Fold this protein.
Amino acid sequence: MTAPPLYLTREAARLGSARDLRRSAQRGDLVRVATGVYINSGEWRAMDADARYRTQVRSAALLSSNGTQFSHDSAAALYRLPSIGSWPQLVHELTVRTPGGTSRRGIRRHGLGLDEDPTVIGNVTVTSLARTIVDLSCTTPFVRAVTMADAALQEPRATGIRAELGVPAVTQFQLLQALGSLLPYPGSARARLAIEFADGSSGSPGESFCRVQFHALGLPAPELQVEIFDEFGSIGFADFYWPHLGLVCEYDGRSKYGARRQFQRNISGEQVLWQEKVREDRMRRVVGGFARLTSEVVRDRHALADYLRPYGLVPQR
């Protein structure tokens, strides 16, 4: 995966082209990503929020000393872990253990001790996948930590950066072991909760968000990715299944059918919708109930509780 080139003022000065760089920036041909670091403006406009934050991290790495370890959100972004909510404004670095942390322009330094097993992604040194999840679970909201942990527990996709680097899925045991090796550690209690709740069977960030909302409402935990059959064979895997109710629940984010969907890119959105309708009709014939959740309902916890109550899903005593 080739990232767009970055242009440094210091390199331009050595080559005698600093004036050309400044003029390109003044014309709007270049965008400043960090002090002394620029990128082609067309490349920048074409980037989504994830890619822009990764570019910030790459810029910080160019300005930092060799071997600087990037951590927390910055490492997560380079591993392509999904983020519920926006990425931070700052880039995160680890330093040796010191009380508190320090900051400089655009960078937050954490004096938590360096990772003994870092990874290099595109010439940027980042904390290991396990350490990244531990650090985030100590500092970020529960739902965001769970979403990233769920993704880290899954085997990497064949075309993803983790597969390219040979970074396998982590296990809950490895995450808890990594957390234990750092104790005493700020935020360790909240991290343990997120790690123990995480489940690699969760099929998407939206499904991870659903699970957290179910948990917050006190609903019984569903089984994940349960295969449903009828007389013709396998219908497919249900996102959520409650055996005591025979209830199947599917989460439908807009990206499931849009042009930027991850799966079934070889067919049109209309065909995806038709296949989903046929699949749903078959499931409805053999299960006790079938519900569909949208991101709008899931985001509103009270609306979610009201929506699920008629299906028999109520808080446990």
About this structure: The chain has a mean pLDDT of 92. Residues 219 and 316 are 6 Å apart (CA to CA). The longest strand covers residues 233-242.
